[in-house]
Amino acid sequence: MGEGWLAEVAEAFEGIKAGLDETGDVDLGDYVRALERIPSIFDFLGSVFVFAKKDLSEKFEHLKANADGRGTVREAIRADVEAGRELAGNTKTSPEAVSRPLHRVTNGLKFLNLLLGDMLREGNDDHLRVSAKRAFSGSIEYYLAWAVKKAVAAGLYLLPSRDAFLTRIGETEETARGPAERVVAATTPVLDHVYGIYADLGIDL
Question: What's the CATH number where 158 sits?
C-alpha cells in the first residue's frame, strides 16, 4: 500500500464531484466507497493518530453495511431526521442510522483536505507536524475528549518528516503536487455540500 494512493483518492472524489455537478447531490453508496480510502492517511502518519484510524474504520464498516439502497446523502440524512435517529451514536442499537457515523468519516476526509491544502501552500517548508496540527484542529479535534487531545498534541512531535511521509504514500515533493491539488479541488465542494446538508436540516454534530 502507498504507491498510487493519492491518485486513487483524487480519482475517486473527482467521480463524486462529477456526480454532484450533474445531479446536485451525492449518491450515498458511491460516497461511502470513495471514503474507504481515507482511514489509510492515519496509517501513513503513524501511531499518534491510531485512535482516529480505529474510530473511522469502525464507522466506515457500519456505513458500508448500511449505505446501499439509501439514495443520496441528503435523502439518507433526511430519513434519519424523520425517524428521530439523526443524533444516534450507537450503531448497534440504531443500525439504520447513518448521519452521525457519516459525519465523523466526513471529518476524516476534511482532515486530509486540510492537511494537503496546508502542505501545498506556496513557500511552505514547515515540518509535517505543523500541517497536521492545523488539519487536526480544523476537522476532528472538537469532538474528542480532553485527554485524547492532549495525547495528540504531545504525539505530534513523533510524526515523520515531510519527505518520510511522502515516501510512505509513494510520492516525492514533485510527484505529489499534482494529485494533491486534484484531491483538494475535488473534495472541497463535496465537503461543502455534505456539511451544508447537516446545516440545512439543523443537525449539529
Answer: 1.10.3520.10
What crossing angle do the helices spanning 5-23 and 28-35 adopt, rounded to 10°? Answer: 160
Helix residue ranges per DSSP H, the chain: 5-23, 28-35, 40-45, 50-66, 73-83, 99-119, 128-137, 146-155, 162-168, 173-200
Q: How confident is the model at residue 89 (pLDDT cuts 50, 70, 90)?
A: low
Is 108 within a domain? yes
> Residue 92: pLDDT above 80?
no
d(CA 44, CA 159): 10
pLDDT tens figures, 172-188: 989 999 999 999 999 99
Would you say residue 133 lies in a domain? yes
Q: Is residue 57 part of a domain?
A: yes
Distance CA 44, CA 30 (A): 24
- Sequence-distant (≥ 6) Cβ neighbours of residue 39 within 8 angstroms: 53, 56, 57, 60, 108
Which residue has 511522502 as its cell numbers?
166
In the chain, the N- to C-terminal Cα span, in Å, equals: 32
Report residue 143: phi and psi, to 5°. Answer: -100, 5
* Position 18 confidence tier, pLDDT thresholds 50, 70, 90: very high
Residues 49-57, mean pLDDT to the nearest whole number: 83
